[in-house]
Amino acid sequence: MHTLIRLRWLILIFFVALFFRVVFLGSLPATFFVDEVLSGYLGRYLWETGKDLYGNVWPLLYFNKFGDYYIILPMYLDGISTYFFGVTRFAVRFPTVLIGALSIFPIYGISRRFSQSSLSGYLTALLFAITPWHIVLSRATTESVIELFVLLLVIWSLLKHFESRAIRWFIFAIGMSVLSYFVYHVSRVLVPLIWLSAGVRGFFSLLRMGVRPVWKPYVVAGVLFLFFTMMIGRTDWGKGRFSQTSIFSEQSGVSIRMDEMTYNLGSNAVFLARIFHNKVVGYSREFVNQYLSYYSPLYVFTSQAWMKTRYAVPESGPLFVVGLVFILLFVSQKSQKKDAYFVRLFIFLLCAVAPLPAAMAVIESPNIRRSLFVLVPLLLFAGEGWARSFSLRIWKLNLGMLLSVLVFAELFLFSYYYVKQSNMYSSLYRTDGMPEIAQYIDEKLSETQTVVVFDAVDFPLYYLFQKRDFSTDWSSRFRFGLEIDSMNMVYPTRKKCAMDFSTDEFARYENAVFIQSSGCEVPLHFEKIAQIQAQNQLIRFDVLKRQQK
Fold this sequence. Notes:
Layout: H1 2-22, H2 34-49, H3 73-85, H4 89-102, H5 104-115, H6 118-130, H7 132-138, H8 143-164, H9 167-180, H10 187-209, H11 216-233, H12 236-245, H13 254-265, H14 270-276, H15 279-293, H16 297-301, H17 322-332, H18 341-353, H19 356-359, H20 375-389, E1 393-394, E2 397-398, H21 399-426, H22 434-444, E3 451-453, H23 459-467, E4 490-492, H24 503-508, E5 513-517, E6 526-533, E7 540-546
């Protein structure tokens, strides 16, 4: 009976989570980011042809767009979805949304073992269902949401193995850990750390209670996964993304700052420069700064975290501000349940290692996507703090009830800002206008009309997605960087404006239609015949044609 009641509550929370992730999914976010269209189009293309756009047969490890090596398994999922929902934005986004909503089941199991309380488990699952951080990323076709679900299954199965010592849970945890390597790059660092944390937890059980510890299998697994990660890191496809974003890259600015400070000392201070301005000091301080930024209240509870990203939501942070009160309530009261000590130790260790992969990178840092795993310990703490608040009173009023009102007030405000305001801010970082240009060409121009699109690096994917064109011919025509000379009568060019064309280049496209940003100058003897409006009201494109003589 208790199991049935528990399942009913969890199913209800699941539908709450699904609702907040699926409502308006086809139109919110309003802009269709290039990573989304790549995932949806390439996923369907793989199922249709058995090849990627470079002709590789059934790739399993990556798709190399321009040296960044996208992990390809989520693309297969998005491709399957298009068979059920059509080749639409909704279909591309739905697998991530569904998996994100399903995450409430393992987070409940983890919370229940962490707090030894069903109420904490339900409240943690509910917080997970409505937290802005997870909702926004789930709706944006973000691989980290799928990765988080898999990692939650790893942690949950490890906790089950702590309890029962049943080999099936150990094997399941191993299987999910391997799977995570095919989902998102960050998990290749987190998985070894999770297993090593489980080993430390087992070892401490010997030191504290003298009980027979189970720690060696976890440490061995952690070392093997670490070795596996290091081997992947030696390959071009394994180190591609890290070499672009890491603190050791030129883009971090560490080496430049060290050189500047050395120069400031003058030519006679070589000894001082070697002590204070060496790479070890510079990179260490950069790492510490990055690491601490992920637990900064300004990052976790304010819009500072994502306002300059494609996930921007004004006036709303990744977590509700009332969550800080929940975490403080959790910290202020010592748990009386001694049998939960080692589970709590394991979670605290995960809290310590959660920001490590994100702290090793500097691009768009602190990064709301790479640090999603930080959400797990924070919600576990907040969920238990929320449960504890119901046992406290303030001015003869139940504190839990008062804080619950604040939770749903913040949820209401977040929903408003996300639905009504976020598109204006996020569209600036989401390839705005390309879907509208593709739709204009498809619906307003004949297939025999020559069309030249300027500043069209990513446009080919949008055009083929709009046309639902999965011809096998494309895999022989795309070059590295997904460059292509023409698609039927459509010619994408990397040049920014029509004015960049020479007279000879104009002559190649006699009677063509030219589409460029409205910020570009209109060439002499050309006229505007239409204007294409992007989602952001500030972004428009002019449709040009040569004037008749």
